[in-house]
Amino acid sequence: MINVEDLRVTFHLPRRTVEAVRGVSFTVEPGECVAIVGESGSGKSVTARSLVGLAGPGARVDATRLEVDGQDARRFAPRDWRRLRGGFAGLVLQDALVSLDPLRTVGAEIGEVLRVHGQGSRLSRTKQVHRLLTEVHVPEPERRAKQYPHQLSGGLRQRALIASALAGGPKLLIADEPTTALDATVQAQILTLLAERRAAGETLLLISHDLAVVSRLADRILVMKDGRLVESGPSRVLLTGADHPYTRELIAAATGRRRARTAQPGPEPVVIAEAAALRKVYGDRTVVRDVGLSIRHGEIVGLVGESGSGKTTVAQLLFGLVEPTSGSVTFEGARFSGVPERARRPLRRKLQFIAQDPLSAFDPRWTVRRIVAEALPRGATVTPLLERVGLGEDVLDRYPRQLSGGQRQRVAIARALAPRPSLIICDEPVSALDVSVQAQVLDLLAEIRERDGTALLFISHDLGVIRDLADRVLVMHDGRVVEEGDVAAVFDRPGHEYTRKLLDAVPKLEVPA
Amino acid sequence: MTRAILRRVGAGVLVLWAAATAAYLALLAAPGDTVDAIIGDGADSPLIRSQIIQEWHLDRPAVVQYVDFLARAVQGDLGRSYLLQRPVAEVIGGQLGPTLQLAATAAGFGIVLALVLAVVARRPWVRRLSSTTELVLVSTPPFLIGIVLLSLFSFRLGWFPVSGAQGAAALVLPAITMGLPIAGTLAQVLRDGLDRALDEPFAVTARARGLRESAVLVRHALKHALLPTVTMLGWSFGVLIGGTVIIEQVFGRPGLGQVTVQAVNASDLPVVLAVVILAAAVFVVVNTLTDLAYLVIDPRLRRS
């Protein structure tokens, strides 16, 4: 169905050329599920998109063989590609909120494929759209078809996107990170849907950064790094006996590991921050209901929940960015809520924050030196602090844009550490990072706690990360803390039904028999 | 949705009220007696003075004067020009037609030209050429464009009349003069919006459905690019109204611009006040329409 030999994709940009794919060969047979796994910049997406002629603007695609649907695609004119797109191959991208046109109804988006390929009249197309939505298990298809993407939940949106890719009845479904933007339970549902398509005989090409996500579905796995294939083979072989160290690293990241903890909290741990009976109401929506928590010196507390569970609001309440409707926050023994900002300001240095995407948390026109120096007492030097977070002097005069994701997050950590805080609130600090970089940043955070006794409130939707790092965990659902306790206890013997559901939904590395 | 519309219309009414009040206060603050200010350079006689006192209720308490002024303004009664010996509404009403005609034609021409420049001219070198031209158009003062067009097409070639507002031919040059800078601005914003939209993931999805590039542009990207363009268009309408003052002078056209210039020169305060209120009304209407156009274009804004 697909036969590629020595595929090379080069981007000729105004000032430089980027070799995104450097000689990749693979095949996809009918009815098979092939997965390409790699981190950002590995060339996996470009490889997949080259198969439908959408490598991107300024891309030059070369190959000794590029067979798509039995035809030599190297000599394709634009109209040949167009016939193939939607008809032979459907493409599902990451986030349906931006991958479906936000200004058009879901039904119009799905119907467009039918219209382009000249299928049916307007009326029969509406029926087809409803049938397709039903096929991907969207309830009330008639109503949903008339809605806009932002009016649907993340899961329904993604299903609608898949329906639009399936509309042309393609032989091949290319899914590029189809579940990355989704919560764990929704991700599990979408993976089930894809498994269903596969069982029905659909050929799948899956692209993902997460081995665990594809392990359940893929017959064969290709591992890409820096535009090259480092390893490939049947899933079973690859997952049990990987040769390449990079593949082993990805497997380790997907299985998760537990960090050894040496420093235990002292005999009488000091409570640094405490929240009691927190409640926050916006209009007629209660987003936080009766949340209480305390964080002790040197403790890492994980706060887990899906999007909309209220975990970010809790962080904002603790941080004093938002006033609680009722309840109180105490920090370092002083009242921190319901007081004027003037009263909070002297304590601010002791309470720091690390955001998910540091790129938007830095002034883009400031160098690393200036970013970190601003947080330090006057006259203190930046270099030792950068060394602490594993960065050299070479980054001092660079701008945030010129750093990699991991380096940026290290700068964010250095900035947070600069005023010697007693508590750092981290909101999804590793969610935007590649798995191998994630591990390094988590190691760094664990080490900081060990050495300085800095307490961390670690907010994440990723249970694996929490399990890796936290001592205690709070599970939030619908604005409430539904379960709380020692990480090992909660993960091994979840008491609440929701926690169990959450744990079950986490994709595990499954080795097919 | 209904609430969002009502809120915007309500805000518009509020702005109008503020503009009318500001105009009224300006009248009170004018140097000398209010009666003197209203007479301006017009004929002065005890009879006219008593007429003015009666019309503006200057013998009644200030509150009554103000409320009566508002009440009359709401009914479209903008007072009387004692200089021209005619009701203000009539003075303005007679000149509104040519100005609206000019503004609408200029805006229409600007929009069409902008669409052509941004949507059709997308090949790299055409794009560079049109982008440079737009920049020149935006930075040239309109009266200069007007003079160049006049000397070329009217004086030398004799294709269009030199002045007046007789027939469609007289509309061509002034409309082009005012439309060109608008086209330049709109085209820049539109092109930028299209480029951004074409880079979005939904454009990739649309291409992956087998759409032609032109269909991706028209069916998907254009609507996204319209959002900032509509804002720009609302703003350029304000520029249009201000621009007529100069353009009507250059082309010797009758219209609101001429009326304004004459009224200011002759200190005909009732007419000046009416022009201020009318200009505010145009702004309010245009901005409200812009906001409502947003709601039509972007469903995400329809919430709350």
From TrEMBL, chain A:
Keywords: ATP-binding, Nucleotide-binding, Transport. InterPro entries: AAA+_ATPase, ABC_transp_ATP-bind, ABC_transporter-like_ATP-bd, ABC_transporter-like_CS, Oligopep_ABC_C, P-loop_NTPase. Pfam families: ABC_tran, oligo_HPY. NCBIfam families: PRK10419.1 (NF007739). This is ABC transporter ATP-binding protein. GO terms for molecular function: ATP binding. Gene3D superfamilies: P-loop containing nucleotide triphosphate hydrolases (3.40.50.300). PROSITE patterns: ABC_TRANSPORTER_1 (PS00211), ABC_TRANSPORTER_2 (PS50893). Residues 2-251, 273-503 form the ABC transporter domain. Belongs to the ABC transporter superfamily.
UniProtKB/TrEMBL annotation, chain B:
It holds the Pfam family BPD_transp_1. Its main location: membrane. CDD domains: TM_PBP2. It is found in: Cell membrane. It comes from the Bacteria. Belongs to the binding-protein-dependent transport system permease family. PROSITE patterns: ABC_TM1. This is ABC transporter permease. The chain crosses the membrane at residues 100-121, 133-155, 167-187, 225-251, 271-297. The keyword Ubl conjugation does not apply. Residues 96-290 form the ABC transmembrane type-1 domain. InterPro entries: MetI-like, MetI-like_sf.
